Amino acid sequence: MLEFWIIVAGLILLALAFVIPPLIRTNPNTTDIDRNHLNVAIYKERLAELAQENLTPEQLTLAKQELEKNLAQELDDGVKLSKNQSPNCWQGVLVAICIPALALGGYLKLGSFQFSSPTGIQASQAEGEGHSNDGMDDAIATLEARLKEQPDDLEKWQLLARSYIAIGKSEKAIAIYNNILAQFGQNPQILADFAELLAQSNDSKMTGLPTILLKTALNLDPDNQKALFLSGLAAMEQGDNSVAVTHWERLLTQIPPEATKVRDMLEQHIARARQSAEVTTPTDKPKSPTEETEKPALTTAPTDKPKSETVTETKATNLAQIEVHVSLAPALQDKVKPDDTLFIYARATKGSPMPLAIARKSASELPTTVTLDDSMAMTPTMKLSSFKEVAILARISQSGLAMEQSGDLKGQISPVNLKAQNKVEVTIDQIVP
Question: What global pTM score does this model have?
Fold first, then answer.
């Protein structure tokens, strides 16, 4: 406590040292100061600043008129400073008394002694965080109320999603993005933002729906910067290093030369991807007998375990999985093009429509079989093993978009008990109205 008051006294003396001397001595340089000249200089500087600001012609005209009005008033009232200023000792004494008195009086009236101890500071910080969260909750509640009155305001929906992300409620943000896509349709920037959120909610993994959303975003806008960058990360995660280089080089052409930090970062990513591509690319050079014998034992030595046991162990590594066989009804054969996109996914029978696991294929591969499992989960809390019953769906999209569109072909089976069934067959036999 004593140290606190010593610091207070020192700061007060330091403040007085700056304030009092100018008050008690004559300033010989004031004879050369003309306030009118100073006002004119300020006016010119402000005019130059206005010229650099992004103002409309109307705004610029109003700003200049306001400046001219202020200058005229200052010039009318302006007088030269007195050439013979006498020392104002009484002013210095008054300030020396008033500053400490006001500072100490204000602290004793409004301050908190809790800040003089570490425990008090910690308590205050905790209280501040609580108030901050309360304030954020109030802002979110206000935003939600406005959206009930203006449900077509896309910007406010995006702001609400970002607000939930800021307070760590990713699941609510995911639900909002689903609502945005369903209500406003496919938007490349929103798709990229949604993919980023899903990846962040799943230990930064881009596999599954994030990758599908990014492909959709690039189909709509091949130059979307966020989609290009995240697609490069997704390709690297899947080992497609050359694809990552393609995405990042396309992005690099859009970055201005003056953005040196961004360009340097991208160039480093590209260099690492190229290096990885060179390491993983097989060479046409025939291998010597020595190289053949130097293969790691794990790649050549046969396992002692029967194949059936190996398969069983592989399945056991996933907490939940289901094999899905998909076929197309003969009546819809003529409505499918080879380049149409096939989505196969599982979702909860109740609650959020967010896929628990999803796979993407080409319609030309039908009939086909895929295995959906926990490794395809979008978030740690939304995966197959989190649910006893799910719905299994297959959908053919002519647009290639991840969200269901009118005219898509689909089929589903529900409910599927994951503990009782490990294989299902889905026939695509419906047209989305």
Answer: 0.51
